[in-house]
Every structure is written in structure tokens, then in C-alpha cells.
């Protein structure tokens, strides 16, 4: 039997894995998810697993359950609401469940540990923010009509409507040469855009260590290929501490 995560970093990793699973169910796999939630079936729940997989299933029969349970009966409201509103409602309940699981695991953390855990969780957009597109930048970045030039890429790309701030969150460190490797995959970070003087929240999706390039995703779902040599040289990426 797999041991429960105990440290702040282990719990935060578990949170991110479950969050990615739920996001996949509500975005990439949404048609499959929708069809599984047949209102004629019994009470169903959406689970995000620690291995990054999701499932629609009946609630646990064990009382009390090993972990906090997600909201019950998500299938019953499916045909009584607009599809996008139903998905958004499930996203809200999914965020509540993710927090419940994280702080169930973190029940024995001290005050500083709980604060550190919250900062790591709060550094990424919620499922609801991502699914509904509400995780957007403020100010000039939200206009979405400027360009960002990336050396070594295929030219300028559209500026994303993504979560941004004038200063880094203060819970990370600058990317270095030693960081380039497969361990970067799945890490949360902040990417600086000098033209805007803003830091954008990103997730590193893949890394090619040989050519020192990475594919990243902004909080609005848009992606970009980065030249890591340039990013490191200019100090334009801050890895969020795990």
C-alpha cells in the first residue's frame, strides 16, 4: 500500500498530480467525462488520483473513508444545466476536494508548514479558474494584442491572457544550468516578460535537455517553446520552490 505524503513538498506534489488529473477530465477528456456522468446511474463522484489519472465512480463504501470524499451525485445535475455551467460547478467542488485532501494529509504540519503548503497550492490557478478562463492577467497584459519575441524560436508569439504579477511571488529561485533535465517536467515557475515588466505563472510541460529547450504552458492554456540558455542568461525564470 502506498504511503501517504507527509512533508509539505510531498503533499504539494500530490495536490498538483490530482489537480492535473481533474483538469484533464474537465478539458481534454471532457466529452468522455460528460458521457460517463449519466444521470440514470447512481450517485457518482469525480476523483483525481495521485498518479495523474481521473475516474468517475461510486463513492467509497468504507465509513469513514480513507480520504475526504469528493462531492456526491455530480451526474444528477448534468442535463438540468448548460454544459459549461455544469462543468464550472464541478470545477468549484473539485477545488474544495483538493484542498480537503491536501490539509487532511497536512493535519500534523505546524503553523509554518501549513503556510508553506498554502503558498505552494496558491501559486497555481484553481481548477475553476483554469476551466472557466478566469486565470487572466491584469493591466496591459490582459489586452492580448502585443507580441513577445523569443530568440531561437519561430518568431513572435501572441501574448497570453495569463496570470501575471509585477513582482515574483517570492517563493522561488532563478533557474540555473544544473536544473535542466527531466525533473523540470511538471514544475511550476514564473516567466519574466521584459516588455511588460511582468512575471507570468507557467507550468513546464516538457524539456529537451540536449538542445536546452522547454515547452511551457501559461494559465490560459496557451503554450510556448523557450530557449533555456537565453532564459538562464537573462535571469527570466523563477522556479517555484517545491
Automatic annotation (TrEMBL):
Superkingdom assignment: Eukaryota
One Gene Ontology biological process: regulation of DNA-templated transcription
Domain Alfin N-terminal residues, every copy: 7-132
GO cellular component, one term: nucleus
Alphabetical list of Pfam families matching this protein: Alfin
Alphabetized GO MF terms: histone binding; transcription cis-regulatory region binding; transcription coregulator activity
Stretches the record annotates as Disordered: 138-163
Protein name: Alfin N-terminal domain-containing protein
Amino acid at each position: 500500500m502506498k504511503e501517504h505524503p507527509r512533508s509539505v513538498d510531498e503533499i504539494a506534489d500530490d495536490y498538483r498530480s490530482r489537480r492535473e488529473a481533474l483538469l484533464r477530465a474537465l478539458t481534454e477528456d471532457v466529452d468522455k467525462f460528460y458521457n460517463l456522468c449519466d444521470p440514470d446511474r447512481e450517485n457518482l463522484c469525480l476523483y483525481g488520483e495521485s498518479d495523474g489519472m481521473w475516474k468517475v465512480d461510486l463513492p467509497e463504501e468504507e465509513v469513514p473513508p480513507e480520504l475526504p470524499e469528493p462531492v456526491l451525485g455530480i451526474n444528477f445535475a448534468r442535463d438540468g444545466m448548460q454544459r459549461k455551467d455544469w462543468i464550472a460547478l464541478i470545477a468549484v467542488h473539485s477545488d474544495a476536494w483538493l484542498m480537503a485532501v491536501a490539509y487532511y494529509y497536512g493535519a500534523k504540519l505546524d503553523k509554518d508548514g501549513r503556510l508553506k503548503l498554502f503558498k505552494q497550492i496558491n501559486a497555481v490557478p484553481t481548477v475553476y479558474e483554469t476551466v472557466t478562463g478566469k486565470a487572466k492577467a491584469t493591466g496591459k497584459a490582459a489586452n492580448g494584442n502585443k507580441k513577445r519575441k523569443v530568440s531561437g524560436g519561430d518568431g513572435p508569439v501572441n501574448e497570453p491572457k495569463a496570470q501575471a504579477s509585477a513582482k515574483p511571488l517570492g517563493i522561488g529561485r532563478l533557474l540555473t544550468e544544473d536544473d535542466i533535465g527531466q525533473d523540470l517536467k511538471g514544475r511550476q515557475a514564473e516567466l519574466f516578460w521584459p516588455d511588460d515588466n511582468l512575471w507570468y505563472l507557467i507550468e513546464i510541460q516538457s524539456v529537451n535537455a540536449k538542445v536546452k529547450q522547454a515547452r511551457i504552458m501559461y494559465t490560459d492554456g496557451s503554450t510556448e517553446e523557450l530557449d533555456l540558455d537565453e532564459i538562464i542568461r537573462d535571469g527570466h525564470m523563477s522556479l517555484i520552490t517545491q
